[in-house]
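Sequence design from tokenized structure. All designs in this work follow the same two-part layout: the structure record, then the generated sequence. An example of the structure record is given first.
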């Protein structure tokens, strides 16, 4: 079982606080696919922030594709699946491309979720086997 990045960082810091040098930490945790770079960066981050958590990201925050807007788009699609993307985008206040991206991801998820049922029906229609 693979560890998460946070668990890797916690292991590095635990050894660091026990007095191990970075190269010793790397040698101990080498079997967990931890790189020297991760060890050195984790120790540096811990010394600067006293934390192993991810730093906050810079950049422009999401303002349009928020969970609330995506939920509203999905609700409108469920009420009227034949509604045009252009009209849907206008009603929700999105650009056409943003609405299209939401709709496309919805269709992909629906197809993936529906695959086992469709495959089972296909096998039954072909006499119990599928090639």
């Amino acid at each position: 079982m693979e560890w998460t990045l946070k668990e890797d960082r916690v292991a590095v810091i635990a050894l660091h606080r026990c007095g191990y040098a970075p190269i010793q930490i790397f040698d101990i945790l080498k079997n967990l696919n931890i790189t020297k770079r991760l060890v050195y960066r984790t120790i540096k981050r811990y010394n600067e922030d006293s934390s192993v958590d991810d730093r906050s990201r810079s950049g422009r925050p999401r303002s349009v594709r928020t969970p609330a807007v995506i939920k509203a788009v999905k609700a409108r699609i469920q009420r009227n699946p034949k509604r045009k993307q252009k009209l849907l985008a206008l009603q929700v206040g999105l650009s056409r491309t943003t609405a299209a991206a939401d709709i496309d991801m919805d269709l992909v998820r629906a197809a993936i979720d529906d695959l086992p049922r469709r495959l089972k029906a296909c096998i039954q229609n072909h006499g119990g086997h599928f090639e």
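DSSP finds six helices and no strands in the chain. We note this feature because it recurs in several other targets discussed in the main text.
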